[in-house]
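This protein record is not my work; I was only asked to verify it. Would you go through it and say whether the fold makes sense for this chain? Here is the record exactly as it was handed to me.
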Amino acid sequence: MPDFSFEKEFDFEVAGVDEAGRGPWAGPVVAGAVVLKNGNLAEDLQADLDDSKKLTAAKREKLYSRLLEEQAAGRIAIGIGEASCREIDEINILQATFLAMRRAVEKLPTCPRMALIDGNQTPKPFPCACKTIVKGDARSFSIAAASVVAKVYRDRLMKELAQKYTGYGFEKNAGYGTAMHLKGLKEKGITPEHRLSYKPIREFLKKNEN
């Protein structure tokens, strides 16, 4: 379970940063940045926050709403950044993830002096100093909050895209390579939201060229 151990290493406020959507075949990659002001977090959030992958969709939605409430009350700050499918194709998914993280931090009201980043790779360039934390979304409250923000925001975005591009199951698979998604590709072809640099999409295009 996450705690404040990493945040307490610093005598100033830090931002937790995490991403969602590196693996899907379609849609943007999204990053969240969350600052827990004064190192505080409501008790219900402390009890329920965790790595977003461990939580149900309903639990994530509830936590997301609570985080927005805390932001409205001035107790936390949230920044959300995206990198589009075309940016992913142009600079690769790792660099696009770093770009989304930079954009998320830049959306915060003030730039933090330090970002706690989930994983083991440091984005460069970045607007502030960074500390990488492996499995940080399960170890740091700030990163766990960022993981929920990124995941819920992206899932909602993919549900909107599902209305625009029907038949791919984006509302359920969030762009991941499910049977429904593959069926949609076979019946309707690719959309402008597909990542052309991803192997399954490249292979699909190659197969359908012949």
The helical segments are 43-48, 57-72, 85-91, 93-106, 141-164, 170-173, 179-188, 199-209. The mean pLDDT is 96. The two ends are 51 Å apart (CA to CA). The CA atoms of residues 32 and 150 lie 5 Å apart.
